[in-house]
Amino acid sequence: SFNNVNTLLENLLHWSRVQMNTFSYQPEVVDLAVLIGDNLSLVEATAIDKQITVNGFVCDNLYAFVDKNVFNVVLRNLLGNAVKFINAQGKLEVRAKRTGNGITIEVADNGVG
């Protein structure tokens, strides 16, 4: 969809700013369930085509102080690579939970590698 392409282009622009050192880090409090859900929706069409089961498991009220754009670029790259290398009818899961004083986010799949 147009929104997916637009989001991907925004991420590419952000990545290029990082590479050229014209990037400014702008952390804010974000709802990880929303960010993870948005990123999962971007790989949804490809996952459906490959009959990949995609699940997100995020603890309730899980907020983090991050730069939303950097977070999205990293997660999108992980998800994109996972979907690319998972065989048909595979599984992709993203889990986010509190661990000690921090948060752990896992991207797990049953693809090669």
What does this structure look like?
With 113 residues, the chain is α+β, with helices and mostly antiparallel strands. Helix content is 48%, strand content 29%. It contains three helices and five strands; from the N terminus they run αβαββαββ. It has a three-stranded mixed β-sheet with strand order 2-4-5, with helices on one face. The protein has a two-stranded antiparallel ribbon with strand order 1-3. A hairpin with a 2-residue loop joins strand 4 (91-99) and strand 5. Helix 1 (2-19) crosses helix 3 (68-85) and helix 2 (32-49) runs parallel beside helix 3 (68-85). The longest helix has 18 residues, at 2-19.
* Helix content range: 40-55%
Output the structural class.
Answer: alpha+beta
How many H/I helices?
3
Largest sheet: 3 strands, mixed
Strand content: 25-35%
Give the rounded overall mean pLDDT: 85
Rg over CA atoms: 15 Å
The rough form would be described as globular
Low-confidence stretches: none
Q: Count of DSSP E strands? A: 5
User: How do the strands of the widest beta sheet line up side by side?
Assistant: 2-4-5
Q: How do the SSEs run, as a string of H and E? A: HEHEEHEE
